[in-house]
Structures are given as structure tokens and as C-alpha cells.
Amino acid sequence: MKIPDRPEYQLETRLVHEGQHRTAFGETSEALFLTQGFVYESAESAENRFLNEEPGYSYTRYSNPTITMFEERIASLEGAEAAQATATGMAAVTVAMMGQVQAGDHVVAARALFGSCRWIVEDLFPRFGVGCTLVDGPDLDAWRRAVRPETKAFLLETPSNPSLEIIDIAGVAKIAHDAGATLTVDNVFGTPLWQKPLELGADCVVYSATKHIDGQGRCLGGVILASTEFIETKVQQFLRMTGPSISPFNAWVLLKGLETLSLRVERQTETAGFLADSLHDHPKVRRLTYPGRPDHPQADLIKRQMRGGSTMIALDVKNGKAGAFRFMNALKLIRISNNLGDAKSLVTHPATTTHQRFTPEQRGEMGITDGLVRFSVGLEHRDDLLADLIQALDRV
Asked: What is the CATH number of the domain that holds 194?
């Protein structure tokens, strides 16, 4: 849905007010339209709606007033011309990528991807005649070498899940555009607060809104953000015909989540930085990776590309899987879950959960060791979190 022109308010203001369409009742909170379909004044009106010659709604699988409000608000935050909400984050990735390719095309993707995203390009695409080449994301020459005459799209996530590897978005975007291809960026770990892929040259940004946008463990959702032309020609028809549409209720929950997004992410990032500094030299931690620290391997790129650090920390605990499991099982406040970006602090062991289907060699290429623990920092007091982490590390 394309957003109309609005005054250029500050981000925090837009997160509260953008996309608010009140009914005649003048409600304060956005209305929740739990309806499957809509009625028309006449048969001619129904015809014109389906021809896109008359404004209005026809079916919630296509769009809905509550969904429109969410799309307008997140588009304003991202700085995008248009947005399309989806049922889940993986629906957003699948629709965005499938809508760009057909049999005979070729895709280049970063090797370090969320497990399901990598399955899309590495396993699903070849079934339909779309080739894929995986590359070392930070190596710009690797992207150049992977380009073929039939290359149509690039895909990357940065910071990567779960190793927090950083990829030069502007550099990859230039390579893609020089080859006549597009770049799609999964910005879940960067969040729309700390990283703006569209400003850096990306053509499309995708989110699992289940993560920071909801941020409270309540519902699933996703969103695709791009130019109006991209959404209308590559996304809308695919979504309408295949059906991975978001429910109005989930769109309403995510809309309310956006109101507190900056407060939550700023607090979580501040706490994550404190915990990363506090644990970096702990004797039971083999390696700690955090995008906000100067010792991150790509610290200079982070300064150019990101406005803040992250809510995520990658902890490589000593003694491999056994050490990681002892650490996780000893935690008392922090819970074990494969979700992230939540108000509650969560840990997961990627090698046995989100990336378990990969071989040890493939996980090694993505920086996923047997001792790696992905830590999503929540809203608890930082001293309580630190105490819990230290007592659990003492058990390793």
C-alpha cells in the first residue's frame, strides 16, 4: 500500500501516529476490522474495484483497512514508498524472492543466512529451474564472480543470524545494479531503527515482524518494503494469488507494537552493549561477537552502515556443545527459545535448532560453532541479566 504525503515528523512521532485512519466514531486506538470481505454499492462498483479503477477494499486476502494502517506506518519508518504485509517473516522472504524470478533465472545469496531463508534459495528455487550461487557475504569480489548473464536477484541478511557477520550493503547493491539485478536485504537483526538498507541502495527490505516489531511474543507477521513499482509488479499479484496474507488481528497487534519499538530497541541495545563489554573477557567465553564493540571484525563498516549496535550477542562458550548446553540449562532468568527481539531475554543453540539441518562443514562456513549461543537481549534490568549470565557461565 502506498503511503500518502505527510509532514516529516520525527521517527518516534511517526511510530505513534502514522497510518491512523479513524472511522466516523473517532476512536483513539486504531480500529480492528475483523472482516473477510466487503460489500459494494452496485455490481458496477464491484467490477471497478477488481479492475483497480475505483478505490476501496474487496477482500482481506488482498488488503484490509487495519492491514493498510500497519503498512503505512512501517513504510514511513523504513522510508519506503510502499509496503506489503505478509503472514510471517518467511512468507515475506518467499514472496519477495519468488516474485522476482522465473525458470532459467539465477540468484546470488550470502552463505550466512537464516536456515529457512537459505533453504528457499538453495533447495526450493532449483526445483523450479532457478539457479543459486552462495557466496562469502563480506567478500565483494565473491559477489562479482558469482554474477551470470541470467542473474536477476541478490539476497543477504546483515547482521547475519546468528554469527552477527556484517555485509557491505552499498557495495553489494552496486554490484547487483551493474549486473542488472536487484538486491533484497533481510534487516531483522539490524532493525529499521539502526539500519536503512533502502538508503544504502537496496531495492527491497524484508522483516519478520514477529521479532522486534511485535517484540512481545504475541503473534506472527512479516512485511516487504520497496518502491511502489516493485510492490505492484513483483509482490502484489504473487501474494494475492498464493495467499500468504496477514490476518487483520495480527496486523493490529504489530501496529500497536510499532508504537513502542524505539523505546524497546534502544533500551535492549543499550543493555546488550553493557553485557557484551562485561562478558567479553570472561574465562568461559571463547569468543564474543557484538556489532557495537570496536573489536568486531567489521567495526569500520558498522560505523558507516549502522546507526546503532544490536539487541543480539553471539557467545561462543568453551567446551563446545556440552559447555553451551551446561550454560543454557543453568540460566534462571533468561529462557531458552528460538525466538528473538522479544521483551524477554532469550537464548538458543543454533547448531541444534535453527541451523541443525546443515552439515558441520556448512555451519563452520557460516561461523556457527558447536559452542555458539545466540543471545537476544530483553528489557530486564541489566544487572539481573549479568548476574544470571555469570552464574551460568560458572557452571561451564
From this structure: 3.40.640.10
